[in-house]
Each structure stands twice: as structure tokens, then as C-alpha cells.
Design brief:
The chain is an alpha+beta fold and about 240 residues long. It has three domains: about 70 residues, Arc Repressor Mutant, subunit A (Orthogonal Bundle); about 80 residues, Alpha-Beta Plaits (2-Layer Sandwich); about 70 residues, Alpha-Beta Plaits, CATH 3.30.70.980. The strands form three sheets. A four-stranded antiparallel β-sheet has the order 3-1-2-9. Strands 5-6-4-7 form a four-stranded antiparallel β-sheet.
């Protein structure tokens, strides 16, 4: 059918795989939160926040429902959070967060991906101290003064306006409270970014094409590991690269 058809087919397959990965990620997370704190989002604020986040990322509604029903059903299936730290191309820093029911399997898969992509696994804590853990919000709809007033009671590391958007870095423990304060100030607030994430204190730029290819391959390999939930790094300038 020609090259154009092959490209479209490959793109569709990649999109489907990414969607499957996203659904799997939230299915595990929602299940564990519901199992730990209860399946009622009104009583379990952590669950409510995760469901809202999943919906914003367009996770299938059936995926969310099945995860909660699974927790209600008393499933004995259990996943434990595991964090790996290491170094990528050009001494970049990596944090790999996983949710697993078999740590030996997960460790083997992560080490294999790192070793094949010019990266290496480090000891616990080797790079974590070089990242801050923040609740990060970027949005439009409030002025800088209005945003500051809305969150004045919280521990805010930074608040600034750029290109019409406000960005706030807050204590990760205050995620839901800060978000509620912002939406109370403007209920229809549009969030561009709304996460709790690792923010690097220093950054690295990859200029060598081999290193860029290695890192993109690493991201792709880790995406194929179901146990891997997130990859955080301090590399800048690759956001638009194909994974």
C-alpha cells in the first residue's frame, strides 16, 4: 500500500501503545490508592485527585472504574513503589519511578534498558538530592497578583508570569490544597500543567547525536516496561524529540 500507509500504521501503533501504557499506569495507581484509603473519592482525597488527573490525561473511563471496582472487590494483588536512580548520557541524572509486584523483574528490566543505552544504575540517593519535589501548576485565567493572593497561606517556592501564563512551584504536600485554592479563586481555571514532579536543580543539554539517540532509545525501552510509571531527568531541549 505504499510508504505513506506504513508511516500511518506505525504512527497508529505507537499511539495505541502509548495509550495502553497510560491506562496501565493509572490503573495500577488508582487501584493502590483506592485499596489503601478507600474506594470513595469523596472520602479519599488522594483518590479524587488521581481520578481528576487521569481524566485530564484522557484515560479511559472504564479503566478508572475497573481499578476502583477491583479495590472494592478485595483483590489481594499488591504493587509496591520502587525508585531507581542513575546516570544517562553526558552524566545526565535519572530518576525512574516504578510500581511493581516483583521487584527482581523490574530491576532486571530497568538495568537492561540502562545498560543498552549508555546509562548506568546508581545507588539509592545518588541523584535524588539534586532534584526538588514540587507541586507544579501552570495556568491562565488569573493575574499574578490574584494567583499570589489565592495561595498566600501556603509554602510557595516560586510564582511567576510568562507569556500570559502563571506558574507556581509549591510544597508537594500542599498539592491538593493549593489546587483547591486556585480553583476557588476561579472555578473554570485552565491548567496547562498540574503535577507533582521532580524538578532538577541543574540541567544538561545533549549536543552529540549519538547521546541524543541513546537517550531517546532509553525512553522508548522504559516505556515498554509496564512496571515503570515515570522517568524524570535533568536533560533540556529534547521535549519535541521523537521517543
Amino acid at each position: 500500500m505504499g510508504r505513506a500507509h506504513e508511516v500511518r500504521a506505525a504512527s497508529m501503533a505507537k499511539t495505541a501503545a502509548a495509550k495502553s501504557k497510560l491506562n496501565n499506569k493509572y490503573s495500577r495507581t488508582i487501584y493502590m490508592i483506592a485499596k489503601k484509603g478507600g474506594p470513595d473519592p469523596d472520602a479519599n482525597l488522594e483518590l479524587r485527585a488521581m481520578i481528576e488527573k487521569a481524566k485530564r490525561e484522557q484515560v479511559n473511563a472504564d479503566t478508572i472504574k475497573r481499578a476502583i471496582e477491583k479495590a472494592k472487590g478485595g483483590s489481594t494483588e499488591s504493587y509496591e513503589p520502587v525508585r531507581y536512580e542513575g546516570f544517562g548520557p553526558n552524566n545526565s541524572m535519572l530518576i525512574i519511578e516504578c510500581l511493581t509486584d516483583n521487584e527482581n523483574r523490574t530491576l532486571t528490566a530497568v538495568k537492561t534498558a540502562l545498560n543498552k543505552c549508555g546509562a548506568k544504575l546508581g545507588v539509592a540517593g545518588c541523584v535524588r538530592h539534586m532534584f526538588d519535589y514540587y507541586a507544579v501548576f501552570t495556568f491562565e485565567g488569573l493575574s499574578e497578583d490574584e494567583a499570589f493572593e489565592a495561595v498566600a497561606d501556603f509554602d510557595i517556592a516560586d510564582l511567576f508570569e510568562e507569556d500570559g501564563f502563571i506558574t507556581i512551584y509549591a510544597n508537594s504536600n500542599d498539592y491538593q490544597a493549593v489546587r483547591d485554592a486556585l480553583t476557588a479563586a476561579k472555578p473554570d481555571l485552565t491548567f496547562v500543567e498540574d503535577v507533582v514532579t521532580y524538578v532538577p536543580q541543574t540541567t544538561v543539554t545533549l549536543t552529540d547525536q549519538k547521546e541524543i539517540d541513546q537517550f531517546n532509545r532509553l525512553r522508548a525501552m522504559l516505556d515498554d516496561v509496564d512496571d515503570v510509571q515515570d522517568l524524570f531527568h535533568n536533560i533540556v531541549g529534547l521535549e519535541d524529540e521523537e521517543e
